[in-house]
């Protein structure tokens, strides 16, 4: 009997949580009512990203900054990549790239930088110049050479899209909290890797770091944006949860070091296998620190 009551309680709790995933879906009389919450729901919701706990510098027994690559061609990382075609899908389904670029254009994310050290900020104008290519056809150039105004049909505009994103680079900090005796990870920055907009149509594309977003400043936006949950579409997972809980596969390509934070490929040249082994060595070195704390 107790098991039955426990099962009912779990099902009831799951239903109450999942109902938030697609709010008002079963009560909507018209499509535009889907996703709208009542005043009572809005008052009862406490839908905010889980706040980071305060960590004093003296509580960090060991720390190591690492840079990783998330390859979007791997199936486990598809939640960050799809959907790439938003023409025939609801407005609540967007890829991580679309979420970031839309928030940048709307001014919801302002902490955007040129590199992973967050030294130089990028303006919206700089970002838009990296997202869009404006070119002129041969007929338009003939008009220009003749001293005439270029007709609009001869001006070609091409934008980067979610389909063009091949990887994400992330920067994070591994640290051992001696107060809680636990190895933890704090994500600091994320960067989409795309072809240079001016080489995207060529055979040899030049891939660049589009921009670096300081992750703690973007958590509110990423929490409100939901990724598709393949196991239960009634309970979508926010991008903030995916990234903070490390629900992705990645490869360390650089760690902070005395050589100016040189990347692995700079001292393991022309040998992909050795680069992979070195990446695993860096990972094991960090992970073994926690286990060594309990060996006497």
Description:
The structure is a single chain. The protein is α+β, with helices and mostly antiparallel strands. Helix content is 32%, strand content 22%. Strands 1, 2, 5, 6, 7, 8 and 11 form a seven-stranded antiparallel β-sheet that branches. The longest helix has 21 residues, at 272-292. InterPro entries: Gliding_motility_assoc_GldN. Pfam families: GldN. It comes from Flavobacterium erciyesense. This is Gliding motility protein GldN.
Summarize the helices and strands and which ones pair or pack.
Blueprint: H1 2-21, H2 39-44, E1 60-71, H3 78-81, H4 96-106, E2 112-113, H5 124-131, E3 132-136, H6 138-145, E4 155-159, E5 167-177, E6 182-195, E7 207-209, E8 212-214, H7 219-224, E9 226-227, E10 237-238, H8 239-244, E11 251-255, H9 264-267, H10 272-292
Antiparallel strand pairs: 1-5, 1-11, 2-8, 3-4, 5-6, 6-7, 6-8, 9-10
């Amino acid at each position: 009997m107790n098991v039955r009551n426990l099962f009912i309680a779990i099902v009831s709790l799951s239903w109450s949580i999942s109902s938030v995933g697609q709010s008002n879906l079963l009560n909507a009389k018209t499509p535009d009512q889907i996703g709208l919450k009542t005043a009572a729901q809005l008052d009862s919701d406490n839908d905010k990203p889980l706040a980071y706990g305060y960590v004093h510098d003296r509580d960090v027994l060991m720390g190591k900054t690492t840079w990783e690559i998330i390859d979007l061609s791997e199936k486990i990382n598809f939640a960050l990549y799809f959907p790439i075609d938003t023409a025939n899908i609801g407005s609540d389904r967007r890829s991580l790239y679309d979420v970031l670029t839309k928030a940048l254009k709307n001014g919801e994310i302002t902490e955007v930088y040129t590199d992973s050290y967050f030294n130089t900020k990028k303006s919206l104008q700089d970002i838009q110049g990296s997202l869009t290519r404006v070119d002129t056809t041969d007929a338009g150039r003939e008009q220009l050479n003749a001293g005439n105004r270029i007709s609009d049909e001869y001006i070609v505009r091409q934008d980067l899209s979610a389909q063009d994103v091949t990887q994400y680079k992330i920067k994070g900090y591994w640290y051992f909290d001696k107060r809680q005796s636990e190895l933890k990870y704090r994500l600091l920055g994320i960067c989409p890797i795309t072809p240079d907009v001016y080489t995207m149509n060529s055979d040899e594309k030049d891939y660049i770091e589009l921009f670096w977003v300081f992750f703690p400043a973007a958590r509110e936006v990423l929490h409100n944006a939901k990724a598709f949950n393949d196991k239960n579409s009634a309970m979508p997972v926010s991008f903030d949860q995916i990234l903070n809980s490390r629900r992705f596969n990645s490869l360390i390509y650089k760690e902070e070091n005395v050589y100016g934070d040189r990347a692995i490929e700079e001292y393991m040249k022309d040998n992909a296998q050795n680069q992979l082994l070195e990446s695993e060595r860096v990972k094991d070195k960090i992970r073994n620190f926690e286990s060594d704390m309990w060996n006497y």
